[in-house]
Design goal:
Length: 456
C-alpha cells in the first residue's frame, strides 16, 4: 500500500498536526484571517492535473494557519467547546485509517464493540439504566433530534397511531412542552419533526434559566393526548440545571415522555461533587449529550440515549434487501446508515482518564469557572451575571454597547476568546470552561487582558 505514498502523506499530516499543537498556546486565539481571505488562498478552479498526496497535505498546512482558531489551547472560552485529549485525537486518526462502516456490527465488529462499551461506560457514569440504547450521532443537535424523533414515535404509538405507517398529517395532536431557556437546537429538532415554533408550549423559567415547576404543572393541567416534555441539564449561558426531582414526576403524572437535553451538563453526573445537579434525571425517557464538549474528544461525537431500545428500533430500523442485520445494530437507533466510528475516540478518552480522571476533569472545569468568576468580579465595572454552579460564567460591563465593544476588543486582542450573547434582553459575554488544558495561568492571563481592555 505504501507505493501510493500513504506513509509520506500520513507523515506530512503528523508533522503539520504537531506544529499546530506545539504553537497553539502562543498564537492569537481568534483568527486573523476572514473567510474571504481563506477563500482567496484555497479557491480557484480545480486544476486539471492531480498532485502528489503528501504535497497536498503540505499545501494545506502551509496556508491554513491564519484562519485557524486556537480551540485546542487553554484560553478558548467561546460557545461550549472542549479541547482534545491525546488518546482521543490519536484514536480519531485510527478511525479514519481503519475506515470502518460502523452502522453495522457485522461490517465493523471492532469499532461497534468499542462504541458499545463506550456507551455502557457513559450510562454507568451518568447513572442511567444500563439497558438503554446509546446511538452515536454528530453532536448535541442530532442527539436532540434523534431522541425527540424516537419520543414522537413512542407517544404516538401509545395513542394508537403508527407514524411509520400512517405519517403525521392526520395524526393526533402532539404537545411539545419546552422551557423558556431551552437551547435553540431543541426548536430546530422540533422543526425537523414538523412542529413549528408557535406550536410549542413554552414554560416559564427562573432567573437562572431553570424551568419553573408551577408553570409546568399549569401547562400540563389540560393535557390529554400525546405529550413530550423537554428538560435541560446545563443552560448554555448560566450552566443551570432543571430540578429533575421536582419536574419529572409532574410530567410523568400526565403520561409525558421526558427528554433531557444535557449536551454538556449530563457529564456533571460523572463527578461525585457535581452529581447532585443531575439528581432525578435518571427517571427521564431519553437524554441527549455529546463527548466533543465536556469529555474533550474531537468534533463529531454526540450521543442519543433512549431508555427502551425497542422505542429506538421502532423509530429508526430500516429495510433494504442488501443490508446485513444482526440484532441491535448502530443503524437501528439513529437516523444514519453508513458512518464513521465516531464513538471510538470517546472510548479512548474515557480509557485514558479512567473514572477518577473523568471526575477530576469535571471538578477542574468547575473550579476554573469559579476562579474565572471570582477574578472577573474583582475588576472594576465588570459584573458576573450568573450563579456559577457548573462550567459557565457570564459577565457584562456598563451598557449593552460597552459590553459588545469589550467582547470585540477581547477577540481582537487575541489573548483569549469569549463570545457574546443576550441574556434577559441585555448584552452579555460568556466564558465556557470546557477545556482540559486550561490552567490557572491561562485564567490569570485572560483576566489581566480583560482588566486592561475594560479600563481602556
Ligand atoms: C444545551 C445544548 N444543547 C444542544 C447543543 C447543540 O450541540 P452541538 O453544537 O454539538 O450540535 C448545545 C451546544 O452548545 C447546548 O449547549
Amino acid at each position: 500500500m505504501d507505493d501510493s505514498g500513504i506513509g509520506a502523506t500520513l507523515d506530512a499530516a503528523h508533522r503539520a498536526a504537531l506544529d499546530f499543537l506545539a504553537t497553539v498556546d502562543e498564537r492569537p486565539v481568534w483568527p486573523r484571517a476572514t473567510l474571504d481571505d481563506m477563500l482567496a488562498v484555497f479557491g480557484g478552479p480545480l486544476a486539471d492535473e492531480g498532485a502528489d498526496p503528501a504535497a497536498v497535505i503540505d499545501e494545506i498546512a502551509a496556508h491554513a494557519d491564519p484562519g485557524l482558531v486556537a480551540i485546542p489551547g487553554g484560553r478558548f472560552f467561546g460557545f461550549v467547546i472542549g479541547s482534545t485529549l491525546p488518546a482521543a485525537l490519536a484514536a480519531d486518526w485510527l478511525v479514519s485509517a481503519w475506515d470502518q462502516n460502523s452502522g453495522s456490527s457485522r461490517l465493523a465488529p471492532t469499532t461497534v464493540a468499542l462504541e458499545r462499551v463506550a456507551g455502557q461506560w457513559m450510562l454507568d457514569l451518568f447513572g442511567l439504566p444500563r439497558s438503554a440504547s446509546v446511538g452515536f450521532v454528530t453532536g448535541g443537535q442530532l442527539a436532540n433530534f434523534t431522541c425527540l424523533s424516537t419520543a414522537r414515535h413512542a407517544v404516538m404509538a401509545r395513542a394508537g397511531w403508527d407514524i411509520a405507517e400512517r405519517g403525521v398529517r392526520d395524526a393526533p395532536p402532539l404537545r411539545f412542552v419546552v422551557g423558556a431557556d431551552r437551547h435553540g437546537s431543541v426548536d430546530r429538532a422540533a422543526r425537523f419533526l414538523g412542529i413549528g415554533r408557535r406550536e410549542l408550549t413554552v414554560v416559564e423559567s427562573d432567573a437562572q434559566g431553570r424551568m419553573r415547576a408551577d408553570s409546568l404543572e399549569q401547562a400540563l393541567a389540560e393535557e390529554t393526548g400525546p405529550v413530550i416534555v423537554c428538560l435541560q441539564a446545563g443552560e448554555v449561558h448560566t450552566g443551570a440545571f432543571d430540578d429533575f426531582t421536582e419536574l419529572i414526576p409532574i410530567a410523568k403524572r400526565q403520561g409525558a415522555w421526558v427528554h433531557v437535553d444535557g449536551a454538556f451538563g449530563l457529564w456533571a453526573a460523572a463527578s461525585p461533587s457535581l452529581r447532585a445537579l443531575t439528581a432525578g434525571m435518571e427517571h427521564a425517557d431519553s437524554w441527549a449529550t455529546d463527548a466533543h464538549k465536556t469529555l474533550n474528544v474531537p468534533y463529531d461525537c454526540g450521543m442519543a440515549i433512549v431508555r427502551d431500545p425497542a422505542d429506538s428500533i421502532a423509530a429508526f430500523r430500516t429495510g433494504g434487501d442488501y443490508l446485513i442485520y444482526s440484532g441491535l445494530d448502530p443503524w437501528d437507533v439513529t437516523p444514519e446508515l453508513s458512518r464513521r466510528a465516531r464513538g471510538v475516540p470517546a472510548w479512548a478518552a474515557m480509557r485514558s482518564l479512567g473514572r477518577s480522571g473523568i471526575a477530576a476533569l469535571l471538578d477542574r472545569l468547575h473550579a476554573n469557572a469559579l476562579a474565572m468568576a471570582a477574578a472577573l468580579g474583582s475588576i472594576d465595572g465588570i459584573d458576573v451575571v450568573n450563579e456559577v454552579v457548573y462550567t459557565q460564567v457570564m459577565f457584562r460591563t456598563g451598557s449593552d454597547a460597552a459590553t459588545r465593544a469589550l467582547g470585540e476588543a477581547i477577540l481582537l486582542d487575541g489573548t483569549a476568546a469569549v463570545t457574546g450573547a443576550e441574556w434577559r434582553g441585555r448584552a452579555a459575554l460568556r466564558c465556557s470552561m470546557s477545556s482540559w488544558v486550561t490552567t490557572a495561568e491561562d485564567i490569570e492571563r485572560t483576566v489581566e487582558a480583560i482588566r486592561r481592555l475594560s479600563a481602556g
